[in-house]
Amino acid sequence: MDILITGGTGFIGSALKTSLLEQGNSLVILSRQVKSSVPNCRYIERLDELADDVEVYAIINLAGASLAGRRWTVGYKEEIVASRLETTRALVQLCGRLRRPPKVLLSASAIGYYGPRNNNKIHEEEPSGNCFSSELCKKWEAEANLAAALGVRVCCLRFGVVLDREGGAMTEMARPFSFGLANWIGSGEQWLSWIHRTDAVAAIEWLLQQSDASGAFNVTAPEPVTSKGFCEAMKRKTRTFLTLPMPATAMRLLVGEMADELLITGQRVVPARLQEAGFSFRYATIDSALDDIVAG
Known about the structure:
By secondary structure, this protein is of the alpha/beta class. It has one domain: NAD(P)-binding Rossmann-like Domain (Rossmann fold). Helices cover about 40% and strands about 20% of the residues. The chain contains ten helices and 15 strands. It has helices at about 10-20, 75-95, 130-145, 170-180, 195-210, 225-235, 250-255, 255-265, 270-275, 285-295; strands spanning about 1-5, 25-30, 40-45, 60, 105-110, 120, 155-160, 160-165, 180, 190, 195, 215-220, 225, 240-245, 270. The strands form five sheets. A seven-stranded parallel beta sheet has the order 3-2-1-4-5-7-12, sandwiched between helices. Strands 6-15 form a two-stranded parallel sheet. β1, α1 and β2 (about 25-30) form a beta-alpha-beta unit. The longest helix has 24 residues, at about 75-95. It is globular, with a radius of gyration of 19 Å.
């Protein structure tokens, strides 16, 4: 099938690109990075490079400046918002311009939609929070859902923390352990809703094929862990000599507002709709994931 991907050179997108090409799909990747096209994979820098009569079966929207890319200054928060809303808005406009709109739009969102929560398990029907990341995700999803009026099936993918050995959050999370230091942030009781990158890619590909699937999907592993639980799992896979938690006050000094929304608090998110629809996870537990990422 012919698939347009934004964010196709990012952490999730690069793995997705490889997998889709191996399955024989033809891809168009929107990227600010200048890259040479290869067989079955064309790179474009602007959506207006696509003619009105181009055939696109699906759009996968993964574009957006990293929430953890740097300190949340006013300027960077504006960049985070604009990079998501403007790209998504342009994709919906493309759907309206094409003579034959795509069948499906899979658009990234995040579990930040729910805001900081307590110990209760969070399913997709839970209401949104009222912090920066919550408002961002609500607006982001609202832009994507406008494509439904054009006859496009829309799925909003609320990603948890995506883990793998080649970059992403794991780079920073594993760094202390590589020096023999086990740690967690703050109380350690906050929930980490994670997913192995292999399962994140598989979920995207699975939703492409599910003609009756639409709406929001939590793209997280079935068994979230606390920050302490992640630390204990890492200690089982690595050699550590000292356990030294990172105080919440120190983390706030280091990264500011981001600490309270992404690091010191958390959400216990479960992939209820994916599981109910029959999706199977390869890495359902943190131990199985770390066996592949750390010990593999």
